[in-house]
Amino acid sequence: MTKKKQSWPIKAVMNQIYDMKLWGGKDFDFYSGDGSHHLEIINPYLEKTISFLDSFKQPLVVCDLGCGDFNIGKHLTPYTKKYIAIDIVDTLINRNKTLFKSDNLEFYCLDIIKDELPPADCIILRQVLQHLSNAEIKSILKKLHDYKYITLTEHIPLGDFIPNKDIISGQGIRLKQNSGVDLLKPPFNLKINYVKHLATYYLERPTKSQIITILYQLP
Ligand SMILES: C[S@@+](CC[C@H](N)C(=O)[O-])C[C@H]1O[C@@H](n2cnc3c(N)ncnc32)[C@H](O)[C@@H]1O
Question: How many Cβ atoms are within 10 Å of 152's Cβ, its own excluded?
Fold first, then answer.
């Protein structure tokens, strides 16, 4: 009889990923993956996201859910009124607190699935939901209605695919099942005012796919 895959608590999963360097970067103390480091991926993302943040006369309060090793957030912080960076891995948050200091920057160790989230104008969710199950994504979405903007980055297949196939949360993503997260489709059906494409990076390997960043304005 084949054993059914058991899901681990998400905190243990993410701790193990960093401890065992499952997202690569063996020469780094913490490494959130190539998507957080490769310049050809991050530079167009940063350019477009900075230009969005910089377009406001009154800078936005930003909350980065799953901030990882902060190789992304450190570039965005200067363009915000306040940058609140959250991750579930406490050793990573302690490390970020010592490495990155700014008057408008705060780090918190929280589980964005279970914990209450701080108030902000804009949520950044960058390559986080792709690692979570549909039930976990739903719990997060319930808390996002109070925010005005979400910038969402997801690694998804190229061309047609069935969105939101369920997975057990972990290192992997839906790409293996030729699927990817689309918050506007069932079972999520996120209601929005408008959507704007911000950036896309195309990959040939492991399969033809894209890392896409979308801006949603919520009603
Ligand atoms: C692939 S990394 C991306 C990091 C960062 N957003 C970036 O783009 O560089 C995903 C991050 O989400 C965090 N994460 C996953 N589930 C979480 C949860 N339930 N609460 C808070 N952080 C979580 C992980 O610990 C990890 O640092």
Answer: 23
The closest of 125, 66, 74 to 104, measured between CA atoms, is 74
Which of 68, 90, 64, 173 lies closest to 129, judged by CA?
173
pTM for the whole structure: 0.96
Residue 219 Cα, ligand 1 centroid: separation in angstroms?
26
How many angstroms separate the alpha carbon of residue 78 from the centre of ligand 1? Answer: 21
DSSP-derived secondary structure letter, 125: E
Which of 15, 18, 125, 128 for mutating ligand 1's site (highest number of atoms within 8 Å of CB)?
Answer: 128
83: region left, alpha or beta (phi > 0 left; psi from -120 to 50 alpha): beta
List pLDDT tens digits, range 55-110. 999 999 999 999 999 999 999 999 999 999 999 999 999 999 999 999 999 999 99
Instruction: Show the ligand 1 pocket: residues with CB < 6 angstroms.
Output: 10, 14, 32-33, 36, 66-68, 71-72, 86-89, 111-113, 126-128, 131
Query: What domains lie within the chain, and their CATH numbers?
Result: 22-217 (3.40.50.150)
Nearest CA to ligand 1 atom 27: 68
E strand intervals along the chain = 61-65, 82-87, 105-109, 122-126, 149-157, 194-203, 209-217
